[in-house]
Write a structure and sequence with these properties.
- The complex is a heterodimer of chains A (501) and B (501).
- Chain A has 501 residues and is an all-alpha fold.
- Chain A has one domain.
- Helices cover 75% and strands 3% of the residues of chain A.
- In chain A, helix 1 runs antiparallel to helix 2, helix 1 packs antiparallel against helix 4 and helix 12 packs parallel to helix 17.
- Chain B is mainly alpha-helical and 501 residues long.
- Chain B has one domain.
- Chain B is built from 21 helices and two strands.
- In chain B, helix 2 runs antiparallel to helix 5 and helix 12 packs parallel to helix 18.
- The longest helix of chain B has 32 residues.
- Chain B is globular and about 65 Å long.
- Chain B starts with a helix and ends in a 12-residue tail after the last helix.
- The relative contact order of chain B is 0.10.
- The chains are: A mainly alpha (501), B mainly alpha (501).
- At the A-B interface, helix 5, helix 6 and helix 7 of A face helix 17, helix 18 and helix 20 of B.
C-alpha cells in the first residue's frame, strides 16, 4: 500500500494547495513541502528496510508490490512495484521535489496555488512512471506528467515560454502516441501467441515476436524514450524547454523527466526486445557518442546560462545511453550512477541559474562577469557543481561516467575513445561557465546579495549527496544489483532460447 | 400493434406526447420557464421509461423499428444529452428577447427524430427519422433571427435537402436491386443475389447522405458555418445528439453486410476517414473562432470513429459507442462553457474572448481545460480511453496505416487545442472585477459533465459493462439459421426470436 500512498499524497497535496491558495500565499508552499518530504521519508524508509539488503537477497521478488484489476475489459491492472532501480529513481524524484518546492519559494508570485498543484501532480506522474508495471498504467502516468509540465513552462516560464511549451508537448505527445501504438501491437501479438490479453510487464517479457515486428514495436518505444532522454536527432525541444521553464520546472525537467526516458530504456526497451535491442546497439552507441560530443560543443557555444546547462544535459544523457546499451554490469551501474548524479549536479546548476536570474534579471552570460567578489558563497557553490558536472574525481558524476566508459570499452574501443573525448570537452564548457560568470571584470558593477539561508539549505544537501556518491557509491550499487540482475536475466532469457533452437 | 408493442415504444411516445403538450401549453400561456420545465420533466420521464422498457427487449415493432439494447443505450445517451442542452439553453435564451418557447418544441421533435433513427431497421424509418431531425434543425439553427443564425439555417436547409435527395435516390437503387428495405433482409438478399452495378452506387449514395449529416469530409462544408451561426446550445445539440444518432444508424446499417464486403464501399469509407482526419485537424489550425475550431475538431473526431468502424469486428461497435459517449460528454461540456460565457449580444466564440480567461473565471476555465484535454485525448479523461479504444480496435484489425495517420493528425490536433488553452491562460492585464458566478443550473450541468468525464476516464469499468451488454445488435427478422458468416462474426449479438413472422 505504501506505493499507492507515494502517488496519492502528492495528488491530494496538489488539490489542497490549489484550494488553500485563496486564503494564504504561504500555505500551498508548506503543504507541498510537507507532502514531498513525507514521500521522501517513506521512500527512504523502504530503502533502509529492504533496499540495502544486498546482492544475496532473493533477486526475483519486488521490494513492495500492489496489483489490482483496473479495467477488466482489456486486462488492465493497477500494478505498481518497486525494485532497486525504481527505488533509486524515487529517492531522486522526491529529493529534487523538495528542492524544487524550496527553490520556487520566492520566485513564484503569481497563481501560487495552481503552480503547486502542477508541481505536485507532475511529481505524482513521475513517481507513477517509475512504479508502473502495467504498460497501460505506465503510458497513463507517462502522459499525465506532461500536462502539468506544459503549464509549468507555459505560465511561469520566461519570454518565449509558449513556443517552448508547445514544442515540448508536441514532441512528447507524438512520440508517446507512437509508443501507445507499439504497446497495443505488443498486446495483440502477445494475445496471438498465448491467447491472453494482458498489459502486465511480467507477462509480456519474452513474448515471441517475429524479428520484423520486434524491430518496429521497439522503434515505437525508442522514439518515446529517445525524445525524453534525449537522443540527439530528437533533442531539439530540450534547450527551449529547459531555458524557458521557471527554476523548479528546469530542475524537474533536467533532474527527473530526462531520467524517465533512461528508465524506459532500462526497464522496457532492452528486456522486452532483447534481440531487437542487440541489433540496435551499434546505432545506439553511435547516437550516444554523437550526443556526448554534440551536447558538449553546443554547450560551449551558448551565451544563455540556462541554455548552456541544458546542452550539458544532452551530453550527459549520451553517457547514460552509452552505459545502457553496453548492457554489462559496469555499464549499467555507470548509467544509473550518472542518472542520479546528473539529476543532482544539473539540478543544482539550474537552481543557481535561477538564483542568479532572480538577482540580476538576466540569463545572458555576457552581462555577467566578476561576480565572485560580490557573491563569494554562491560562486563557490557554482564552482563545485561545475566541477561535478565536468567529472572531477571524488564527485558522483566521475564515478558514473568512468564506469560507463569501462563498460563500453568491453563493447567497442573506438566508441569509448571518442566518448572519453566528451569528458575533455565538458571541462571546457564547465570552466568557461565559471570563468565567464564569476571571474573576470565586473563590467555591469553588480552588487548582489549572497546566498540566503533558504538557498544554502537547498544547495548543501546536494553538495553532501554528490560527495557521498563520489566517495562511497557502494550503497547505490548494492541497491541496484538485484534489480540489475533481474533486468539482465529478462533480457537474456529469449536469447538463450534462440541459441538452443 | 399489440399492447406490448406500445409499451416498448414508450420512450418515443413520451417524447412525442411531451412535444405536443409543450406546443399546446404555449398556445395558452407563453412562459419560458414553464416550457423549459415541461421539456425537462418530459425528457426525464422518457429517460426513466427506458429503464421500464428494458425487460421487454429485444423486440421488433412493425417492420420499421427494432427496440434492442443497442437502441435503448443510444436513446438514453441522446435523451440525457438533450436534457443537458435544454438546461443549458434556458439561461442562454433567457438573455435573449423574443419568442423563446418554441425552441423546446423543436428540440423535442429533433430528439424524436434521433430516437427513431437509432431504432430504425428499415429504410423508411431511417428516412423518416432523418427528415424529422433535419426539418426541426432548420428552424432551430436559424432560431435567433439574426443574420448569421439565419444564414446558417438556410445553408443547412439547402445542403440537407440536397443530401436527402441523394439519400432517397440511393435507397431507390438499393430497393430496385434487392427488393426489400429491411436492413436484415437486405443483408440476406445481397449475400445471395445482387447486381453490384445497382447496389454499390445505391450504397455509395446512401453514404453521401449519411456523410452529410455526420459532417465528414468532403461533405463537411456546412459544419463550420452552422456551428458558428447557430446559437451555442443548438450547436451543442447539432454536434452531439444529431451526429450520434446518425452514426448509430450507420453502425446498424452496415452491421449486417459488413463494410468489407464491397471493395468500393470500403475504399470510399477509408477515403472519407483519412480526409476527415487530415482536413479536420489541419484546417482547424487556421481558425480563430472557437466554435469553428470545435467544428473542425468534430470533423476530425468522426474521422477517428470511422477508423474503428472500418476495423469492424466485435469490438468496433463497442469502441465507437464508447467514443461517442466520450465525445458527447466532452462536446456538451465545451459548448456548455461557450454558452455560459455568451451574452445577449453575441456568442463568446472569438479566441480573444478567451484571452486571460483563467485569471477572471478560474472554475469555468478549469472545466474548459478538462474538456479540451479530453478532446485532445489526454489520459484521465474519457477522450483518452475513447482514443485508446479506437487505436486498440485498429491495431487488432492490423489497420496500421490508418492508426498511424490517426496518431499523426491527432498530434496536429493537439496544437489547436493548445492554442485555445494558451489564450485562456495568457497573462491578462485587465482584471475583471465584475466576476459574475456561473448561472447555477448551467453550473450543475457543467460540473456533472466534468465529474463524469474524469470518473469514467479513470474508472471506465461500469460504463464498459453497460456498453458491452448492449453493443450486440439484434438481428431482426433473420431466421434462426443465420448465414454462417454472420453467426461467426457476430456471435455475441443477441438474436431476436422471430416468433412474430
Amino acid at each position: 500500500m505504501i506505493l499507492v500512498w507515494l502517488i496519492v499524497i502528492p495528488l491530494v497535496a496538489g488539490i489542497l494547495a490549489w484550494l488553500t491558495a485563496r486564503w494564504s500565499t504561504q500555505l500551498p508552499r508548506w503543504i507541498s513541502l510537507g507532502a514531498v518530504t513525507l514521500d521522501l521519508l517513506l521512500t527512504l524508509a523502504v530503502w533502509i528496510r529492504g533496499g540495502n539488503s544486498g546482492v544475496a537477497g532473493d533477486a526475483t521478488s519486488w521490494l513492495a508490490e500492489v496489483d489490482r484489476s483496473w479495467v477488466p475489459r482489456f486486462g488492465i491492472h493497477f500494478h505498481l512495484a518497486i525494485d532497486g532501480l525504481s527505488l533509486l529513481m524515487l529517492v531522486l524524484t522526491f529529493f529534487l521535489g523538495v528542492m524544487s518546492v524550496l527553490c520556487s519559494w520566492t520566485e513564484i508570485r503569481e497563481k501560487i496555488g495552481f503552480f503547486h498543484f502542477n508541481l505536485m501532480w507532475m511529481l505524482a506522474g513521475i513517481a507513477g512512471v517509475f512504479l508502473a508495471l502495467d504498460l497501460f498504467l505506465f503510458y497513463f502516468a507517462w502522459e499525465l506528467m506532461l500536462i502539468p509540465m506544459y503549464f509549468l513552462i507555459a505560465i511561469w516560464g520566461h519570454e518565449r515560454r509558449i513556443y517552448a511549451a508547445i514544442k515540448f508537448l508536441l514532441f512528447t505527445q507524438l512520440s508517446g502516441l507512437l509508443m501507445l501504438i507499439a504497446i497495443l501491437a505488443l498486446y495483440f501479438m502477445h494475445h496471438q501467441s498465448t491467447g491472453v490479453y494482458t498489459f502486465q510487464y511480467g507477462d509480456l517479457l519474452g513474448t515471441q515476436l517475429s524479428p520484423r515486428a520486434e524491430f518496429w514495436i521497439m522503434l515505437g518505444f525508442i522514439t518515446a524514450f529517445g525524445v525524453k532522454l534525449p537522443v540527439v536527432p530528437l533533442h531539439s525541444w530540450l534547450p527551449d524547454a529547459h531555458s524557458q521553464a521557471s527554476t523548479a520546472g528546469s530542475v524537474i525537467l533536467a533532474g527527473l523527466l530526462l531520467k524517465t526516458g533512461a528508465y524506459g530504456f532500462l526497464r522496457f526497451v532492452v528486456p522486452l526486445f532483447p534481440n531487437g535491442a542487440h541489433e540496435f546497439t551499434p546505432t545506439a552507441l553511435v547516437l550516444a557518442v554523437i550526443g556526448i560530443i554534440y551536447g558538449a560543443v553546443m554547450a560551449f557555444a551558448q551565451t544563455d546560462l540556462k541554455r548552456l546547462v541544458a546542452y550539458t544535459s544532452v551530453s550527459h544523457m549520451g553517457f547514460v545511453l552509452l552505459g545502457i546499451f553496453s548492457w554489462n554490469p559496469l555499464g549499467l551501474q555507470g548509467a544509473v550512477m550518472s542518472m542520479l548524479c546528473h539529476g543532482l549536479s544539473t539540478g543544482s546548476l539550474f537552481v543557481l541559474a535561477g538564483v542568479l536570474l532572480e538577482r540580476t534579471d538576466t540569463r545572458d552570460m555576457d552581462r555577467m562577469g566578476g561576480l565572485w567578489t560580490t557573491v563569494p558563497r554562491l560562486s563557490g557553490a557554482a564552482l563545485f557543481f561545475a566541477l561535478a558536472s565536468l567529472g572531477l574525481p571524488g564527485l558522483g558524476d566521475f564515478v558514473g561516467e568512468f564506469l560507463v566508459l569501462l563498460g563500453s570499452y568491453q563493447i567497442s574501443v573506438g566508441i569509448t575513445v571518442v566518448a572519453a573525448g566528451g569528458i575533455l570537452a565538458s571541462m571546457f564548457y564547465a570552466l568557461r561557465l565559471v570563468q565567464r560568470v564569476f571571474h573576470g571584470e565586473n563590467t555591469q558593477r553588480w552588487q548582489l546579495p549572497d546566498l540566503s539561508p533558504r538557498e544554502a539549505l537547498i544547495l548543501a544537501p546536494m553538495i553532501v549527496a554528490l560527495l557521498w556518491l563520489g566517495l562511497y557509491p557502494q550503497p547505490v550499487f548494492n541497491t541496484f544489483a538485484p534489480a540489475m540482475q533481474n533486468l539482465q536475466r529478462a533480457a537474456n532469457l529469449p536469447a538463450v532460447v534462440s541459441q538452443k533452437r | 400493434m399489440t399492447r406490448a408493442d406500445c409499451v416498448v415504444l414508450l420512450p418515443l411516445i413520451l417524447i412525442s406526447g411531451i412535444s405536443i403538450l409543450v406546443m399546446l401549453v404555449i398556445a395558452f400561456k407563453r412562459s419560458h420557464a414553464l416550457a423549459a420545465g415541461l421539456t425537462v420533466a418530459g425528457l426525464v420521464a422518457a429517460g426513466m421509461s427506458i429503464l421500464a422498457v428494458t425487460p421487454y427487449i429485444p423486440r421488433q415493432v412493425t417492420p420499421l423499428l427494432i427496440m434492442d439494447g443497442y437502441a435503448l443505450l443510444y436513446m438514453g445517451l441522446m435523451i440525457a444529452s438533450t436534457l443537458a442542452v435544454a438546461v443549458l439553453a434556458y439561461p442562454y435564451f433567457e438573455k435573449h428577447e423574443g419568442h423563446r418557447e418554441e425552441l423546446y418544441v423543436l428540440l423535442l421533435i429533433a430528439t424524436l427524430g434521433c430516437v427513431v433513427l437509432v431504432a430504425s431497421s428499415h429504410l423508411v424509418s431511417f428516412f423518416l427519422g432523418l427528415e424529422i431531425l433535419s426539418v426541426s434543425l432548420y428552424a432551430t439553427i436559424g432560431y435567433l433571427k439574426e443574420r448569421q443564425s439565419l444564414e446558417a439555417g438556410i445553408k443547412y436547409l439547402v445542403l440537407a435537402a440536397a443530401s436527402s435527395a441523394f439519400l432517397l435516390f440511393g435507397m431507390a437503387l438499393v430497393y430496385a436491386d434487392l427488393g426489400t428495405m429491411e436492413f436484415a433482409r437486405m443483408a440476406e438478399t445481397s449475400a445471395v443475389t445482387s447486381t453490384p452495378a445497382l447496389l454499390v452506387p445505391g450504397i455509395v449514395l446512401i453514404i453521401i447522405g449519411i456523410g452529410f449529416k455526420l459532417g465528414v469530409v468532403p461533405f463537411h462544408l456546412w459544419t463550420p458555418d452552422v456551428y458558428e451561426g447557430a446559437p451555442a446550445p443548438v450547436t451543442a445539440f447539432v454536434a452531439t445528439v444529431s451526429k450520434t444518432a446518425v452514426f448509430a444508424l450507420l453502425l446498424r446499417f452496415f452491421y449486417h453486410p459488413g463494410v468489407q464486403q464491397y471493395r468500393a464501399v470500403y475504399v470510399a469509407f477509408v477515403m472519407i476517414a483519412v480526409a476527415s482526419m487530415v482536413v479536420g485537424n489541419v484546417v482547424a489550425l487556421l481558425q480563430t473562432n472557437v466554435k469553428r475550431i470545435l467544428a473542425y475538431s468534430s470533423i476530425a473526431h468522426f474521422g477517428y470513429m470511422l477508423v474503428a468502424f472500418l476495423a469492424g469486428g466485435d469490438m468496433a461497435v463497442e469502441a465507437v459507442t464508447f467514443y461517442l459517449v466520450a465525445y458527447t460528454v466532452t462536446t456538451l461540456g465545451a459548448f456548455g462553457v461557450v454558452t455560459v460565457l455568451s451574452d445577449s449580444r453575441r456568442d463568446a466564440d472569438r479566441l480573444d474572448d478567451y484571452r486571460g480567461l483563467f485569471w477572471r473565471r478560474p472554475v469555468v476555465t478549469g472545466i474548459f481545460t478538462v474538456m479540451l484535454l479530453s478532446l485532445a485525448g489526454i489520459p484521465a479523461t474519457m477522450g483518452f480511453l475513447g482514443k485508446f479504444y479506437v487505436l486498440a480496435v485498429g491495431a487488432s484489425a492490423t489497420k496500421w496505416s490508418l492508426i498511424i495517420i490517426l496518431v499523426m493528425t491527432s498530434t496536429i490536433g493537439l496544437f489547436y487545442y493548445l492554442r485555445v488553452l494558451v489564450a485562456c491562460y495568457a497573462a491578462s492585464s485587465e482584471r475583471d472585477a465584475s466576476v459574475q458566478p456561473v448561472v447555477s443550473v448551467s453550473g450543475f450541468v457543467l460540473a456533472g459533465l466534468t465529474i463524469l468525464l474524469i470518473w469514467f476516464g479513470i474508472y471506465p469499468a461500469p460504463l464498459q459493462d453497460v456498453i458491452r451488454r448492449n453493443s450486440g445488435l439484434a438481428v431482426a427478422g433473420v431466421p434462426a439459421r443465420e448465414p454462417a458468416k454472420l453467426s461467426v462474426r457476430h456471435g455475441s449479438g443477441t438474436s431476436v426470436s422471430s416468433d412474430r413472422n
